[in-house]
Write a structure and sequence with these properties.
about 80% helix, membrane, transmembrane, mainly alpha, ABA4-like, ABA4-like family protein, transmembrane helix, about 0% strand
């Protein structure tokens, strides 16, 4: 399970690397434009979810903190949750990258924001929305 846990992030690294280190390379936009880039992490999610599907369905249908704590002690459940978070962060980062390219927001500014999206997307996403608004106002 540890290998799948680690792999769920590692399969996203090439896409993050393209967005952060090669944002203006013509192939980056082509590759990142596909929403299918999240598929490798979702495949890992599916592999680890199948054996614990009942537990996850119960968590979704009747969520509680105690149930989450208990379920998270199971390596497959925690790995599934991690893979889902990783896939979501990549999907969100993909949107941020594509939006920033359309708005011509400088890659030097976007690199740290994309790294922040990997680490703390709930904080960095609103920051990007502010950057986006400032960029919009400066072009009006």
């Amino acid at each position: 399970m540890s290998t799948l846990f680690d792999l769920s992030f590692l399969v996203t690294v090439p896409f993050w690397a393209l967005m952060i280190f090669a944002p203006t390379w013509r192939w980056t936009r082509t590759i990142i434009a596909s929403p299918w880039i999240v598929l490798p992490a979702l495949v890992i999610w599916a592999i680890v979810t199948i054996p614990v599907l009942g537990t996850l369905v119960r968590l979704v249908l009747s969520p509680s903190l105690d149930a989450m704590i208990t379920a998270a002690a199971h390596p497959a459940v925690l790995t599934a949750l991690w893979a889902q978070i990783i896939a979501w962060d990549l999907f969100l980062g993909r949107w941020v990258y594509l939006d920033s390219r359309e708005r011509d927001i400088h890659p030097v500014l976007m690199g740290p924001l994309l790294v922040g999206t990997i680490l703390l997307s709930p904080i960095v996403f609103p920051v990007y929305l502010l950057v986006r608004e400032v960029a919009r106002r400066s072009t009006d």
